[in-house]
């Protein structure tokens, strides 16, 4: 009993230290399910109600950054191991504990939910290029008192994406089963397109299924359809969304009375058109029960007769993927016009410092504990330059008082703390710690393999 109390004290103390350190590492954090509230997000809210210490014991360090539940993508074949799904196996060192993996019939707050189409809403702090979202629910007869495993889940929905920013598809309607009731866990997975990782969020729900009435009410008609930025080959369309039926899942786009595409937002760009040609457009909404609205009013748009020379659109969502004492890892999105971009210009403190063909850039040889301001511009193949991206302020890390040490794994009782900016050696090579974390004995977090924790020097 005494040994267990000592161990518990060590873990709680470790969590407190990690909390203060990892709270400053939000650059590594990217998104969480806001509605229905994910387990980690509830913890971040609850710390303001029950206090820091109580919330820390109940949820772990996720209360400081619920957007950090990151692990390898490829679920269910890959990703966090069984028993560590809820914590994403410690979130690649950003969480560094497994409190979220505890299970019990009364362990977590449950949200009432009815089967059928349900809206899932993500909150993004860095809306990466996205390949898909996929959703799972625990099977009938699962054991809520055992740690979550892959075999507990079955797929209930997949929303594929075109590689653009996650914010271009913000709401997902998923059909939750109506053949089960009571406590179940929904797993939401967001696959990032431009990194090897995904984000894992579990949602505890109390399914309250009864007789389900068939939805036969169509969505309201989209209105105010209009065209903008018309060139010889392109027309951009936008319209006012349907409002009365919350279960709208998309909009069908018709050109010259033929369906050409279905989108999830109220914007669409029609490309590869012919010059000096009149096109007729209309749109209609479709909901999760496949009810369709009336068509919007038609509009006629004529493309330009001569080529229109346009500058690329400004890059979006410039953010940091991590900092060290002397470097800042930048990443950004383009506005779905990468085919028009020749290269990107990187500006630090309003001075052009470099050019790159990539949408990621590592700025090196900086000063420690110094604030820098960045923005990015796109240069088109026609030589025209975009507007500036959003401005990003980043501070490099402070110099570490720890010198170069040989990397080693810790233990549950004696974890090893690796602080951002520290330098370690492993198999004859030096590595910089790029994310503060504890190692409790996990040899998967080894320099050379854990690329989100260490960078080779």
Describe the structure.
By secondary structure, the protein is mainly β. The chain has 4 domains: 2-207, chitin-binding protein cbp21 (Coagulation Factor XIII, Chain A, domain 1, Distorted Sandwich); 223-302, Immunoglobulin-like (Sandwich); 316-395, Sandwich (Immunoglobulin-like), CATH 2.60.40; 405-456, Carbohydrate-binding module superfamily 5/12 (Seminal Fluid Protein  PDC-109 (Domain B), Ribbon). The chain has helices spanning 2-22, 39-50, 52-59, 88-91; strands spanning 31-35, 70-72, 111-113, 116-124, 130-138, 153-160, 171-176, 182-192, 197-207, 223-228, 235-240, 248-255, 258-263, 267-270, 278-287, 299-302, 316-323, 328-333, 341-348, 351-356, 360-363, 371-380, 392-395, 405-406, 416-418, 423-426, 429-433, 437-439, 454-456.
| Main sheet attributes: strand count, strand direction, barrel closure | 6 strands, mixed
Mean pLDDT: 85
- What is the CATH topology of the largest domain? Coagulation Factor XIII, Chain A, domain 1
| CATH H-level superfamily title of the largest domain | chitin-binding protein cbp21
What proportion strand? 35-45%
Structural class: mainly beta
* Total strand segments: 29
User: Which architecture of the largest domain per CATH?
Assistant: Distorted Sandwich
Overall outline: flat
Query: What would CATH call the class of the largest domain?
Result: Mainly Beta
């Amino acid at each position: 009993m005494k040994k267990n109390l000592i161990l518990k004290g060590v873990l709680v103390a470790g969590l407190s230290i990690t909390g203060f350190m990892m709270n400053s590492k939000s650059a590594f954090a990217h998104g969480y399910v806001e509605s229905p509230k994910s387990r980690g997000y509830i913890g971040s809210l609850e710390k303001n109600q029950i206090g820091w210490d109580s919330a820390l014991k109940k949820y772990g360090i996720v209360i400081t950054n619920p957007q950090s539940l990151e692990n390898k993508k490829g679920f269910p074949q890959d990703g966090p191991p069984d028993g560590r799904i809820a914590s994403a196996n410690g979130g690649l060192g950003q969480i560094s504990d497994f409190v979220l993996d505890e299970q019990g019939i009364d362990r977590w707050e449950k949200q009432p939910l009815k089967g059928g189409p349900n809206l899932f809403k993500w909150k993004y702090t860095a809306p990466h290029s996205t390949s898909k979202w996929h959703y799972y629910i625990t099977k009938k007869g699962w054991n809520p008192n055992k740690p979550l495993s892959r075999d507990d889940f079955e797929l209930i929905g997949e929303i594929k994406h075109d590689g653009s920013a996650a914010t271009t598809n913000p709401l997902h309607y998923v059909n939750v089963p109506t053949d089960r009731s009571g406590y179940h866990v929904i797993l939401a997975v967001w696959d990032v397109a431009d990194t090897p990782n995904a984000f894992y969020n579990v949602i505890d729900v109390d399914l309250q299924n009864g007789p389900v009435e068939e939805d036969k009410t169509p969505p309201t008609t989209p209105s105010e359809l209009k065209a903008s930025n018309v060139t010889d080959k392109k027309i951009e369309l936008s319209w006012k969304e349907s409002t009365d039926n919350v279960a709208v899942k998309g909009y069908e786009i018709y050109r010259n009375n033929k369906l050409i595409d279905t989108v999830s937002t109220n914007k669409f760009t029609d490309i590869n058109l012919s010059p000096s040609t009149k096109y007729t457009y209309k749109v209609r909404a479709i909901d999760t029960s496949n009810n369709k609205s009336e068509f919007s009013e038609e509009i006629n748009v004529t493309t330009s007769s001569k080529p229109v020379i346009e500058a690329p659109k400004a890059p979006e969502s410039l953010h940091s993927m991590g900092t060290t004492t002397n470097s800042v890892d930048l990443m950004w999105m383009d506005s779905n016009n990468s085919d028009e971009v020749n290269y990107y210009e990187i500006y630090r403190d309003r001075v052009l410092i470099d050019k790159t063909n990539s949408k990621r850039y590592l700025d090196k040889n900086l000063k420690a504990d110094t604030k820098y301001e960045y923005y990015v511009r796109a240069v088109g193949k026609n030589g025209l330059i975009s507007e500036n991206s959003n401005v990003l302020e980043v501070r490099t890390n402070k110099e570490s008082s720890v010198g170069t040490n040989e990397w080693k794994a810790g233990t549950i009782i004696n974890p090893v703390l690796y602080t951002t900016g520290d330098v370690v050696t492993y198999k004859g090579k030096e590595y910089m710690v790029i994310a503060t974390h504890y190692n409790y004995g996990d040899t998967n977090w080894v320099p050379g393999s854990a690329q989100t924790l260490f960078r080779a020097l």
